Amino acid sequence: MGHGELRGVVALDGPSGTGKSSVARRLASTLGARYLDTGAMYRAITLAVLRAGVDLADPAEVTRVARAATLVQGTDPERSTTHLDGADVGVEIRGPEVTLAVSPVSAVAEVRALLVAEQRRVIATALDDAGGIVVEGRDIGTVVAPDAALKVYVTADAEARAARRAKQDAASGRASTLDATLADVQRRDAYDSTRAVSPLRAADDAVVLDTTSLDLAGVLAALLALVDEHGLLAQPSGRVHG
């Protein structure tokens, strides 16, 4: 049975390793919607900061670099691209150096304000052009798109998330061990959930989806059911049903 097209915003939040990036792309593709990876945007700004050689603990310098950077985040779920100052940095932003530095950079209030404004612009454009968008990150339902029609907080236990991350790293040719990946997952969790600006948390009206025992197909099926339940599917005639 075919699905209709998404109408509105689906906000997917949660810590790393829950599978939200993979399922967000798949959900957007299935429903003919756009897709926004906000984490990639923070990673790109982090790469710019690292290239500039500024002190990560100096928010003024980090903000200066962020303001000077030209960041373009693609919204095609079939080919999500990240361009920094005209160059495709999609592979480089997934490296270990950026992974270690992204939390302190993304905790800078001015950086978040800059990127949230850009994310809202991208969302508005996608709604005008395509009618629907799936946005994933850590503060989508709470800050970026608090009026999203559907908010889902995707979670899983730390060990399962570390195993997924290690598998992704291996598939991409990045060297890692399960112990090191678990330590990094736990470090990111602590940092992101305790930062002063836009801490990682579920929105009050979010649906919590535990993916510990689910594969990608299972998570996608659960999300498709939620989209349908919230009446966000438009049939080919353009009629939204609920």
From TrEMBL:
Gene Ontology terms, MF aspect: kinase activity
Keyword Transferase among UniProt keywords: yes
Domain Cytidylate kinase per the UniProt entry, residue ranges: 10-227
Intracellular or extracellular location(s): Cytoplasm
Chain residues that bind ATP: 14-22
Enzyme Commission numbers on file: 2.7.4.25
Family matches, as SUPFAM superfamilies: P-loop containing nucleoside triphosphate hydrolases
Organism whose genome encodes this protein: Saccharothrix longispora
Protein family according to the UniProt entry: Belongs to the cytidylate kinase family. Type 1 subfamily.
Keyword flag Transferase: yes
HAMAP family linked: Cytidyl_kinase_type1
Name of the protein in question: Cytidylate kinase
This protein's UniProt keywords: ATP-binding, Cytoplasm, Kinase, Nucleotide-binding, Transferase
Catalytic reactions of this protein: CMP + ATP = CDP + ADP; dCMP + ATP = dCDP + ADP
InterPro entries according to UniProt: Cytidylate_kin (IPR003136), Cytidylate_kinase_dom (IPR011994), P-loop_NTPase (IPR027417)
